[in-house]
Every structure is written in C-alpha cells, then in structure tokens.
Amino acid sequence: MDKLTDINGRIKLNNGVEMPYFGLGVYKTNNGEELNNAIHTAVENGYRLIDTASYYNNEDGVGKAIKSLDVDRSELFITTKVWIEDCGYDKTLKAFEKSLKNLDLDYIDLYLIHWPVPELYLESWKAFEELYKNGLVKAIGISNGLQHHIEEVKNIAEIPPMVLQNEFHPRLIQQDLVDFCKTENIAYQAWSPLMRGRILDNELLLDISKKYNKNPAQIILRWDLQKGVATIPKSVNSSRIIENANIFDFELSDDDIKQIDSLDNDERTGAHPDHFIEHFAKK
C-alpha cells in the first residue's frame, strides 16, 4: 500500500492493476437523487472508487451518476458483484452482461463473487476468468470468503483472486485471514468498516479520537489503512462523506493500533461466510 498521505493512494493488485485504497460503498443507497448526490460529493472530494452490486438494485443509478461526472472514466474504479441466485457458469455470464448494461460501461474494474455459494461459486470463478481474459473486467475476487474459499478457488484457477472483500471493523478483524491474504498477495478490503455505526460510541475509540482531534469514524478508517486494509465506508450524508476522507493528516501510533485491535470479539453485523444461505433464507 502506498504511503497513507493522500486519498489518491492505490494498492497494486497481483495482476498489476492499481486499486484505490479508499472508496465509497453504496449499499442501501436509494437510486436517484440520494445516490447521485453521494457519488458527486465523493468524487468532488477525491474519491475514485465506487462499490456497488447487483443485489443493491442501484447499478443503473451508479452508471448515470458516472456519466454526469466531470471526471474521465479511466480515473474511476468501479466494483460490482454477482449475487447468490446468479452463481454458476452460464448464470454468472448473463448476470455480468446485465450489470454491464445497467452501469452502461464498457468494462468493470473489479468483479466479485458476492457470497461463495457451495457447489456453484467455482463455476462462477471460471466465468470470471473468461470475462477477465476478454478484457471486460480488470480484476476479479471474492466477497465474504474465508481461507478455505480462497484455497478452493486457487486449486481450480488459471487466474488467482486479486481481492478479498470482507466485513472488517474493530470487532471483527480475522487477523489470520488478513495475514493469509498478505502471503498470497491478495488485497484485503473492508465492507462495513464502521460496523454500521454500532461501535462509534465505544469509550476507547472516543478517547483516541480526542488525542488526535478526530471523530471515531475517522480513527477507524485510518486504522483500516494502517493495517493494510482498503476501505469503502458507506454514507449518503455529504458532510460525513467529506469527514470520512479527512484521514490523511495524522497517523495512529503502534500502541493505539494495538488497543483498537483489542476490541476484536468476532462480532458480525452480517452473515458468516459458511452460513449465509440460512441467513438470507430467513429474510
């Protein structure tokens, strides 16, 4: 990861593609004005990565917002994901075609398997490899995966995963998995880095915030990057989008990082990667 002094910093993926280490997530962001305003605010304040998914039902809105930006497409890094119901070789290719049409783009920068559906996600990976070879995606990876998912993909892959995107925050670090990805040269990226707001009133984080004259969200996002984890906080509030990116003028001490690490208790806000089908069946 580049020196953490600039929102424009990037991680070089294992295929040479450079991915911004900071971006905007748009989960549960309403299509239309809310989404358009969030993306415009983000890009005007230096963000270059936008993370969406077919499941979010706002790919078309992301595409429209991109078209209305005063920024060249080549500067942007757009991520989307294939949903559970579209896993499998043929279904994945069709789902990708739909996502590309919704986004109204010529290519997608990063395509992720949203959740690794047993028996099917390896077929999806083969479809991903075809899309990659054809230049329709610049990088491929997995969301919500564990070490065994990565190893199973690598066993059948011609092209190894470039990114693992997981729930990651001070209550759910999975350091062994982060370390494994480092040894495999797979970039680790955090979704829900702020634990959906549930950790922002934590006393330790509040104390550290005072020390640096920052808010707890800024402390957490800086902690992400200093741990070598790319991060995509979600917000639709313009002032928060700007605040979240204001993390490049300070550096957490090693002791502060260790203290934040000590908050880890394996608490998830989302499903476990080995039990997500039951989780979504209840919804």
From TrEMBL:
Family, as annotated: Belongs to the aldo/keto reductase family.
The keyword NADP is assigned to this record: yes
GO molecular function, one term: oxidoreductase activity, acting on the CH-OH group of donors, NAD or NADP as acceptor
Name of the protein described by the UniProt record: Aldo/keto reductase
Superkingdom per UniProt: Bacteria
Catalytic residues of the enzyme: Y56
Binding sites annotated in the UniProt record for substrate: H114
Keywords: NADP, Oxidoreductase
Record Pfam families: Aldo_ket_red (PF00248)
Site annotation Lowers pKa of active site Tyr: residues: K81
Cross-referenced PROSITE patterns: ALDOKETO_REDUCTASE_1 (PS00798), ALDOKETO_REDUCTASE_3 (PS00063)
Stretches assigned to the NADP-dependent oxidoreductase domain: 27-264
